[in-house]
Amino acid sequence: MLFGRRLLPIKKIASNLRRNSSKTLIDDKFTLLTYNLLSPYYMWPQVYTYVPDEYKDWKYRHRLLENELLSRYRADIMCLQELTATDYYQYWEPVIDRDFNYGSKYIAKPPPQYWKREPSDMDGVGIFYNLNKFDYISSSSVYLNDLIGSFDLNELSYLKSKMVKLTDGAGNPTGEQALLEVLRNRNQVGLFVSLKHKDTGTIFVVVNTHLYWKYDEVKLTQCIIIMRRLAKIINTLLVGEHDTTYSKMKVLFAGDLNSPRDSSVVKFLRGEIVKYDNLDIANPLRPYLNRCVFEDVSADLFEHTCYSGKLKGIFDYIWYHNKDFELTKILSGADVSKELRNSNEFGLPNKNHPSDHIPVLGEFKIL
């Protein structure tokens, strides 16, 4: 039990190991976690009124995060969001390298104009990977407001003409702005790490992102940018010296998408065509991504992945293709909802949970 949470089998598996033709034992499983850590600088007092001060304290929350990530879960691949540059470079990078033989990559968001703190206090996304199981191949990142090379002239024309109805933090209308300008003024990022699984020789790309928190048009367009950049990364790997083909490449896409399961982002990732006026936009990574973990588990295992006061829902995802990976176990989320109801608490963080999100953790078998 992990604060009431259980790593549940999806179905019975005879063994975690299989034998190849030479009778050598091969470990074809790994665990992957995605987790929004809740940056200490986003602990807005007007939002987290329900959290006692002692549980808002960053030192208290950090100790819980260390315990979760390094002791309780320690997934083979960890995709983290709202990880500040200071915290990554001063704590996580040296600790996981020195004490756990993990590699890591990180990208911070560029500070917005209103940011009054040190640039190193800005958050970003990181990917940690177990070097006992994986060989590092390459990595790259993308700023999601860098639109050059992501859209053709017709698509850019649509982005310029499409108007977004702007709102303040409380949801009150504040005017309109072209989608192109809204995108340019956002500071979200994406991170890509290519790994080779040592036992099976499988090469796959792990993607981590944290999409903007509102405006469906913005989140959808940011997701399109990520998928198109990912397609270029895969093409680069295919022409490299990695002895791989399209059929051997695999993709894992994780992160806080700030999008419920009926959103345009999720529909796009599932393969539905997006309409930009008379333009049809398809997900170029559809051959590599056809489902998320919530499609392979019982609906009663997750009520929410985010418990931020009034803002609750399933926003955190792990995407893959069912011909590439089989989800064999998952950490139940429903127990957190039950825990909050039993203790009559409004949301997270609390004494036992350091973030307003819960980690989504799965065990996968490479097919």
From TrEMBL:
<protein>
    <recommendedName>
        <fullName>Endonuclease/exonuclease/phosphatase domain-containing protein</fullName>
    </recommendedName>
</protein>
<feature type="domain" description="Endonuclease/exonuclease/phosphatase">
    <location>
        <begin position="33"/>
        <end position="357"/>
    </location>
</feature>
<dbReference type="InterPro" id="IPR050410">
    <property type="entry name" value="CCR4/nocturin_mRNA_transcr"/>
</dbReference>
<dbReference type="InterPro" id="IPR036691">
    <property type="entry name" value="Endo/exonu/phosph_ase_sf"/>
</dbReference>
<dbReference type="InterPro" id="IPR005135">
    <property type="entry name" value="Endo/exonuclease/phosphatase"/>
</dbReference>
<dbReference type="Pfam" id="PF03372">
    <property type="entry name" value="Exo_endo_phos"/>
</dbReference>
<dbReference type="GO" id="GO:0000175">
    <property type="term" value="F:3'-5'-RNA exonuclease activity"/>
</dbReference>
